[in-house]
Amino acid sequence: MNKLKNKIIKTINLKKKFITVEKFIQISMYDKKDGYYRNKIPIGKNNDFITSPEITQLFGEMIGLYIINYWKKYLKKEFNLVELGPGKGTLINDLINISNKFPNYLKHLNISMFEINKKLIKIQKKNLKENANKINNLNWIDNLTNLTNKDTVFIANEFFDCLPIRQGFILDKKYFENIVKFDQKKEIFFFDKIKLKKDSFIAKKIKKLYQLSNLKEGNIVEIESKSEKYIQQIAKIMIKTKSLFILIDYGNYISSGISTIQSIKNHKKTNIFDNIGNQDLSHMLDFSYYTNIFKLMGLKVYGPYSQRNFLNSLGINILKNKIIKNLTLKEKKYIESGVNRIIDKNGMGQIFKILIISSHKLSNYE
Question: How far apart are CA 315 and CA 64, in angstroms?
Fold first, then answer.
């Protein structure tokens, strides 16, 4: 039997014959020994899914130019750039490449890569080898609490969507949480629900989310308890400094009222309970949830904007046309295809959203 599957079954049997959805995702994805994000290489054409930085270099270059402009306008001194879940290091690599044209900016740049996957760290170090000596300080961290209270730019591209979530709903004025059980006879996992006390922490969260998105009874809300811990750590630094957070992920402007958990293997959707520890589990962010959290912490929030609108506003097509001028027809098609894919209004361009969070007012938005 799959080691991780067996571990989940044992955990269910040791508990009250069930575990929360959050616990199921936590073990599947982040178990220290066998979890998917601890041991697997998920990103790439030959793996399970692909991200915007892997599709086209212009994605990282546009984000890089955005940060350079921010630095010129608001910082003009040494600062930290922190990427959460840097994948193969492609985004940071492209960001450094575009920064070569701005030597004064580059010499003030310190980079920290927040990563827990040792296999990915090796790939990141290999991919960043040529650019490593251009940065004052390039390091890897596994804990955000160790960051110094220095002006910081945070980037999170497809980071929060894979963190564990809890699911709950209200029905007949009663509060419920979705759980995972295991049928010993059929040897299968399945979803069920438990009733919650109205004064419990989760029930109160469910009530707030229902009010936030004006949901109807029976609608499912997804509680980002793990995400909130990271957000609190990031906000703590941002509030004390002049800082920026660029959050990029796939999701909805407001809660859809349904379960958004999905599993992917070899770029195809699968059953959530199949290939445990060997497939990606993620969910769609409710951006109203994140906007509300950051605002309650006293931070300025701009957006969310669709990835298409955001990149178009930065001039991605202008940069693309400049790059392809002297290229071969094959090279032109490759670059145009990549850009079109990440700004496609019927695909990634609309599904992915960008939220800008700042510790201070940004004049270009106000």
Answer: 13
53 upstream amide cis, omega within 30 of 0: no
**Number of domains the chain is built from:** 2
173 conformational bin, left if phi > 0, alpha if psi -120 to 50, beta if neither: left
The two tokens of residue 202 are 């989760």
**Mean pLDDT computed over 321-344:** 93
- The rounded percent of the chain whose pLDDT value lies above 90 is 76
Together in a domain, 272 and 289: yes
Q: How many CB atoms lie within 10 A of CB 169?
A: 22
Containing structural domain, residue 127: 39-163+224-358
Q: Could you tell me which residues come within 8 angstroms of residue 186 by beta carbon, excluding any fewer than 6 positions away? A: none
Cα dihedral sign, 353-359-364-365: positive
Query: Is the pTM of the predicted complex or chain greater than 0.90?
Result: yes
List, edge to edge, every strand of the sheet that includes 280-282. Answer: 268-270, 262-265, 280-282
Q: Are residues 193 and 283 in the same domain?
A: no
